[in-house]
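Methods — Computational structure assignment.
A single polypeptide chain was analysed. Its primary sequence is given first, followed by the predicted tertiary structure written as structure tokens.
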Amino acid sequence: MEKKYNSQMDGPIMNKEFWMNPPELNKPNSQDKLNSGHYLELIDRLHIVMCNLNDHCIQHPVAKLDKKISNSLNKALEEIWDAYQEVGKLDYKRNNL
């Protein structure tokens, strides 16, 4: 059995289950409203995340030398890229209909 990495940061922030199934606080509610700037804002934030993932993780020497880590990071980048594209499509549709 593979040993899991243990961090001093114990709690939900380092818990995969927390991130894959976030608590009800992260679910949409009737008070959530979208305005025209929200799509562009999310596109910008996704771009920042992609840049950070590339600059600080994909380009890290460990990731460059370990194919499994590199593949996982590149899959994450692809998923974020897909989300970036989807938000861009929604923004385009919203502004050009």
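Note: The chain is about 65% helix and 0% strand.
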